[in-house]
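WARN no homologs supplied; continuing
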Amino acid sequence: MIKSQLVLNIAGQLRHMRNRDVEKVVNAILDEIVAALARSGRVEVRGFGSFSVKVRGGRLGGNPKTGVTVHVPERRVAAFRPSKEMSRRLNSKSQN
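OK structure emitted
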């Protein structure tokens, strides 16, 4: 599912809101998650999961085309861990 489909699905459930208003709400939520992660925070949505920042250490890598060894610097990456509820629902026996 892409963001535009998410907006349409939510707008279909909330008929009293216009699509552009639902899109503003979705964008605000996603922007706040990104801002919290940028502050090295953690975002937990009960029943859904938690987002956090992990640090990948620097390492030596290779250019596959030339074979030259290059230094890959340390990076911060977003990580997601699903809640127990989400894991249970995804792995339920009722799926086909």
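Helices lie at 3-13, 19-38, 84-90.
OK
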